[in-house]
Amino acid sequence: MTKERIAEIRRITDAATPGPWAHSDDCVFIHYKSPAFDRMNSKAVVCRFQCRTGSRLKALTHEEDEANKKLISESRTILPELLSEIERLQHIVENKD
Description:
Number of strands: 3
Strand content: 15-25%
Number of helices: 2
Shape: extended
Largest sheet: 3 strands, antiparallel
Strand order of the largest sheet: 1-2-3
């Protein structure tokens, strides 16, 4: 993976809503501290899931649906970790003598 591609992915990741993200039955959300309270008690929706039954779209199984929610919600913290590890390994390879 080129340094340019890593930089592009990092820019996309950094521009997204800060994480960590969590998920519920119908959305991915973040917890945030409400100015009206002194603790993390509020949620802001990052994206919503729409399940359409009875349409021409193939319905996902419950397991597929849950796996997709988990992937989307966890990607916010996984992507930066992976990018950092790639950069670390590239640095080792570049400085190997």
